[in-house]
Amino acid sequence: MAAINRATFLKATAATALTGLLAACTTGSNDTSSSSSSSAASGKSYTVKHAFGETTFDAVPQKIAVVNFWKNPDVLLDLGVVPAGTPVVTYGANAQGSTDWFDAKLAELGGTAPVTYDETDGPDYEALAALAPDAIFSAYGDMTQEVYDKLTGIAPVVAAPAGVGAFAASWQDVVTQAGAMLQKQSEATALIEKTDTLIKDTAAANPSLADKTFVAGMFDLDAQTLSAYVASDSRSLFLTSLGMKLAPYIEQNATEADTFFLTISGEVLPEVVSDIVWAWGTSNSDEEAIKSNTLFSQMPAVASGGLVVETDQHITLALSAASPLSIAWTINETEALAKLSAAAGA
């Protein structure tokens, strides 16, 4: 049902979020760059820079644990490394408690499913310690200094690039960080280029989306509000990559947001002008409930037929936790783009 309270919204759309040589870790001063130096092949140590300084490895980690399920494990797998441990999927999981795109890639690699642990209340430090990983990878998430310090007591940590906010690391950021940690920079670059090409080809195949303005978010029928994602959110980034443009109202007011979304009162929705509004829900009745709502129906995109309500939680997860794997799955295995194109032509 679209009548979702704030706690559920945050849980569902934020975080649902190994044998090898032990790698030594040091933490230094912050740096705005996010790269690694040296080559593992040379036998020299190398560093990966991130939001909390830099992490030095004496050898490429072989046994990697993930903190925050969104994007992080997908990218490791896409670079040929099966994570030893990942958080359990608590929203939008398939029947196996995983995701279709992760499972398909895992089968392709012939890998064994990772150990899973629950991060509902934050990192499971005990489970992570029991894994005895060579490294902990968490380039996407909302890690704090306190959490980082605790994790470094277990293993070297690679976090988001410096200057990237909570839940704001793009899939490109995550791929770049993973490539640096694994010393697979060329493979990371190739993965980014491959995904960019797929997105460009998809945009070309859906010309009705070009330059269409959009709002992406969630309607709360109880609170009579729309929680709209800002430009740095994964859903907005994906739609923008298809040639669409974030609605001016969101662009102009996002500076007031201290997170990945902007709460808009129902009374203000007539001012939120866009061609399309993409919203996620949990019931097939959500679309009609939004259209018949006195306040929501006054939003221009809703009134003009530009409303797209996605009730398949697996698709919602794929776009929310957008990674090269989930993007390819969304484009090739679902009707998500067809729904958007139809709305754009309304």
Automatic annotation (TrEMBL):
Signal peptide interval: 1-17
Organism: Rothia nasimurium
Keyword set includes Signal: yes
Regions annotated as coiled coil: none
UniProt key word Lipid biosynthesis: no
PANTHER family given in the database record: FERRIC ENTEROBACTIN-BINDING PERIPLASMIC PROTEIN FEPB, IRON III DICITRATE-BINDING PERIPLASMIC PROTEIN
Pfam families: Peripla_BP_2
Alphabetic keyword roster: Signal, Transport
Assigned GO CC terms: outer membrane-bounded periplasmic space
Main location class: other
Family: Belongs to the bacterial solute-binding protein 8 family.
Span of domain Fe/B12 periplasmic-binding: 64-342
GO BP field: iron coordination entity transport
Name of the protein this chain belongs to: Fe/B12 periplasmic-binding domain-containing protein
InterPro entries: ABC_transptr_periplasmic_BD, Bact_iron-sidero_bind
Residue ranges crossing the lipid bilayer per the database entry: none
Record's subcellular location: Cell envelope
